Amino acid sequence: MTDLSLRNLPGGLPDKRQVAASFSRAAASYDSVAELQRDVGSQLLHRLPTDFAPQRWLDLGCGTGYFSRALNQCFPASHGVALDIAEGMLNHARPLGGATHFIAGDAERLPLQDATCDLIFSSLAVQWCADFASVLREAHRVLKPGGIFAFASLCVGTLVELRDSWRQVDGLVHVNRFREFAKYEQLCAASGLQVVSLQNRAHVLHYPDVRSLTHELKALGAHNINPGRPGGLTGRARILGLVEAYEQFRQARGLPATYQVVYAVMEKPL
Fold first, then answer.
1. Domain harbouring 153, CATH code
2. Which residues lie below 8 Å from residue 50, measured CB to CB, with a gap of 6+?
3. 108 in a structural domain
4. What is the distance between the alpha carbons of residues 137 and 192, in angstroms, rounded to a whole number?
5. Is 219 inside a domain boundary?
6. What tens digit of pLDDT does each residue of 243-268 get?
7. d(CA 34, CA 125)
8. 212: exposed, middle or buried (C-beta count within 10 Å: 0-12, 13-18, 19+)?
9. Which of 265, 204, 211, 217 has its CA nearest to residue 239?
10. In this predicted structure, which of 67-81, 129-143, 203-217, 243-257 has the lowest mean pLDDT?
11. Which of 149, 78, 67 is nearest to 110 (CA)?
């Protein structure tokens, strides 16, 4: 049911086994530092049609199940499926409930039958999928006519301050890569799903120091898992160089970390 095969990923995206392993390790710490994730998912929920009442939903990339539980509260008469590629996340989410079924699976090859879901909800998960066209095809296949695919993802410009600071230090790959927003526009337009809304919005978090940011990324499982990342421990001189470079971005509220978030609501035609 779960495809974790290695791939040559376009744009240097991490392979799925590394993604699954990284997020599995982060399951216990994830919710304690997931301010952005809760904010983005909540905004995505509010973008659903006001009169929408799905009978069966899929939380695609459910993580710790925070939004599986939220969906269950929003639609108490519905049945839900929580799916994630990271077994560690599912093991954490399952005892907390919210969904009828918890399934290990891949967004590019969903282990679900055709036309079985009224809603596919996916918050900050599909940015890790190398073949987003396959994600859209699978969403189209699994949705019932009139069903909704609502997703939030990340695009180029995310963590630009951290990327630029590292570039001043050694020029190596230290920050995860993401698609261009224009690529999301292109793929969504060609998906066969009707684009109800598709927007790019910046979310900026602030930190007292660089260590606080990098600790949070590690606790989320979203630290650097790119091909070409430097191996071994990062030397003290490079860390000091990073701190000095990042200080150039300091604002009154602290060191900014910008996330470029893609919000989309798409409908399968009747």
1. 3.40.50.150
2. none
3. yes
4. 8
5. no
6. 999 999 999 999 999 999 999 999 99
7. 13
8. middle
9. 211
10. 203-217
11. 149
